[in-house]
Design goal:
The protein is α+β, with helices and mostly antiparallel strands. It has 2 helices and 4 strands. The protein has a single domain, classed as RelE-like (YaeB-like fold, 2-Layer Sandwich). A 4-stranded antiparallel beta sheet has the order 1-2-3-4. A hairpin with a 2-residue loop joins β1 and β2.
Amino acid sequence: MLKSIQWYNEISVGLGSDFLNETIDVIEVLQKFPLMYAIRKKNFREAVLNRFPFVVVYTIIQKTKEVHILSVFQTSQKPTKKYKK
């Protein structure tokens, strides 16, 4: 994610901060409403960023109700990489 922030800052000063802030906002929503997004594959869910071409891939640990983030995934990447970490 750091590389993405740096890349956006090279395009326009402050754009990397905008990307980081939107990602944080999405993660805060996930913490409050973890069931908001549908299961996509293997119990993983995806929260879409509005302004940037990324999704936050996460799962919920049912026993503890914790949200575990697998990745902040750029949607232009090969989709099969999305669930591998």
